[in-house]
Design goal:
Blueprint: E1 4-9, H1 16-26, E2 39-44, H2 60-72, E3 76-80, H3 91-101, H4 103-110, E4 113-114, E5 120-124, E6 133-137, H5 138-142, E7 145-155, E8 159-161, H6 163-166, H7 176-182, H8 186-200, E9 204-214, E10 222-232, H9 235-246, H10 254-261, E11 273-276, H11 279-282, H12 304-309, H13 314-317, E12 319-323, H14 333-337, E13 343-346, E14 349-352, H15 362-366, E15 372-376, H16 378-383
Helix pairs in contact: 1-2, 2-4, 8-10
Length: 386
């Protein structure tokens, strides 16, 4: 697969139409990716109900522009995604999310479709290294190809969410917690993502990094202007570049590490060809990482004493989700999204059973009221360097 990544600066979403045009021109034009009569799923990131200014979801201007250009090429583009595991995959849910995220207006402006088909089908994938069967939403299975319109964000479980992680949205919402429950080891979860990526095989990936998310993403971090649009045929190559731009440690990106174990390329920036803006000019020097990351205490490399003690005191070293009672409205989203049924109601508020909790942070990610905080233990605070 082509390991070239294309970068165009885009300071504001008002420039999206012009800048995506420039990005696609560098890549050979939309005609290289969309053919007349093809049904193309625009796989956006629609994690939950959130306005465009929150940087939780792919910005509607990106979907609108890509959809319009694909339609002009004669294709039939359809915006689609399945939201996070705390939400039922129903037409009512989709309609609410389409309205809140601006996708409804984007589709109307571009004259393209919004998916409202909410069925899914099991598929066999014998070529999967770890996972041989998936449950995939029907519109993806019936499309000719997928355009992967991802968002640059941090992620409490996988370090970052970009082009590879965005493909997880083809799994229907309430099936997602099952994957977390079975694959709570982040290396195995990353392996599942790579198998799923191989099955879906998106033809084009474009990352919305005009305004990214830093901190405790992917659902409740902080918007961070980055001013970029990034494109590639290879989602893995795109994530390698995004990791560099965000200033994250590649050794703590489990997707890149699992890809390297499998002998896939690229997993290092030296293996990527960059066209367009210079990488040195677009790196964000003070991008805020998540407070926790896969298999590590924070995002820095572990000291020798941490490596010795972590297996013995895994719970004490971890950051635990906790309910902020005065924010909790007992909506039940966290309960539906918990893959191990570690959450219930106590005195009309959510309660997390710490013994059952596997630290996947799905509850923190999905809570629409931001009522699930993250609490470091006293030992974590004592040992973890500032």
């Amino acid at each position: 697969m082509d390991n070239t990544v294309y970068i165009v600066q885009c300071r504001d979403y008002h420039e999206t139409a012009e800048k995506i045009g420039s990005l696609l021109d560098l890549m050979g034009g939309m005609g290289r990716f969309a053919q007349a009569g093809e049904k193309i799923i625009l796989k956006v990131n629609l994690l939950r109900e959130a306005g465009p200014e929150e940087a939780v979801c792919t910005h509607p201007a990106v979907a609108e522009t890509v959809g319009r250009l694909a339609k002009e090429a004669g294709a039939v583009p359809v915006i689609a995604d399945s939201p996070g595991g705390g939400f039922r995959y129903t037409e009512k849910t989709l309609n609410k999310i389409y309205r809140t995220t601006g996708m409804l207006q984007a589709a109307e402006h571009a004259g393209i479709q919004l998916n409202r088909e909410t069925t899914s089908r099991p598929v066999s994938y014998p070529d999967g290294v770890l996972i041989k069967h998936f449950d995939i939403i029907t519109p993806v299975l019936e499309a000719d190809t997928v355009f992967n319109l991802c968002k640059m964000k941090t992620h409490l479980f996988t370090g970052m969410t970009g082009a590879v992680k965005n493909i997880f949205g083809v799994i229907p919402g309430q099936s997602k917690p099952g994957y977390h429950a079975k694959l709570h080891d982040v290396q195995r979860f990353a392996g599942m993502l790579l198998d799923l990526l191989s099955y879906v095989s998106p033809r084009l990936s474009i990352m919305d990094a005009v305004v990214a998310m830093e901190g405790d993403g992917p659902g409740t971090g902080d918007p961070r202007p980055v001013g970029l649009l990034i494109g590639s045929q290879n989602p893995l190559a795109l994530d390698v570049v995004a990791t560099e731009i965000m200033g994250l440690n590649r050794e703590q990106n489990p997707v890149l590490m699992e890809a390297e174990r499998r002998g896939l390329q690229p997993t290092r920036i030296e293996e990527v060809e960059i066209v367009g803006a210079d990488l040195v000019d677009v790196k964000v020097p003070d991008f805020k990482p998540p407070r926790v990351s896969a298999g590590h205490i924070g995002l820095g490399p572990m000291a020798w004493y941490q490596q010795i003690l972590e297996p013995l005191f895994k719970d004490a070293f971890s950051v635990r989700p906790r309910v902020i009672r005065d924010r909790c409205i007992a909506c039940g989203t966290c309960i539906k999204g918990c893959p191990v049924e570690a959450i219930g109601f106590v005195k009309e508020r959510a309660f997390i059973d710490d013994d059952k909790c596997i630290r996947c942070y799905c509850c923190h990610e999905m809570c629409p009221e931001e009522a699930i905080g993250l609490q470091r233990s006293w030992l974590y605070q004592l040992i973890k360097p500032a």
